[in-house]
Every structure is written in structure tokens, then in C-alpha cells.
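Memo to structure team: turn this sequence into C-alpha cells by end of day. - J.P.
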Amino acid sequence: MFNKFSRQTLHKMKKSSLSERISSSKRDDAWLLSRLDYLWSNFFADVTQINPVFIGFGRYSKYRLGSVRLEKTTKKTYITLTGMFKDERIPTEVVDQTIAHELCHYAHGFSSPKARLHKYPHYGGIINKELRSRGLEYLIKAYAKWLKDYRKSLD
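Reply from structure team:
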């Protein structure tokens, strides 16, 4: 995707238009909530929501694409996605994969009041196994393809 341009041209394009693309984007916290609702309703319907779960964009980050945390005092779960995902050039499947990844952590008892099902959150490829078992292999493939191109763009 990015290899059509030289690195200098790409850097100038990123610098000048990234903030413009993000500020004019239709992707906002309400859009993220609709993606969470779609995924939870259609692929995680067996996972009961036992506490309030919130989702929103965080700051722009190149490397940390998503996170989930449980606020201990209020027992609320917060899913945060990088502000980079406001850019509509990022495929929706990549955003959905990141949300589904965080939902797997929630379902497994990480950053949720549920009992932990595993000792470590990523041990043995458990997240991809869970996604495959829920019929989300297409998200894994889309994410892997995007990640390959994205890593090249960081060089």
C-alpha cells in the first residue's frame, strides 16, 4: 500500500495530511461502540457482560494498538484503541480484530471481574485460537496482511 511512494514523499504526506484525515474522519467513539456491539452480539453472545464496558479512542500510538483495563474501584472495564485507527485508510477488519482481541481478554477474565481462565493472557496463542473458534479467522488474516504492510511503512 505505501510502497508506491518514496520514504521522503511518504513522510511528507503523513506529516501534512494525517491530522487532516483524522479530524475529518467519521470514526469516533460512537462508531467504535457500534463495532463493539456488532462483534459482541454476533460472535461473543455467550460472554455475559457482568460489569459496565466502555470503548473509546486513546492517543495516537504506532505500536500499542489496543488495551483493556479494569478500574478496580468502580469495576468498570475500559477498552482503548489507538487514535491511529481514526484514519479511514485503516481497514475496518483491523479495528474489529483489535476489539475482538480485547474481548477475548475480557472473556478470559483479564481486565474483567470474571474468573481467569488462563495464567497468562497470550499463552500458547490462546487469543487466535479463541478468535478462530468464534468464526473470526478472516479478521486474523486481514490483520496479518495489514500488519505486514504497516511494518514496512515504519522502516
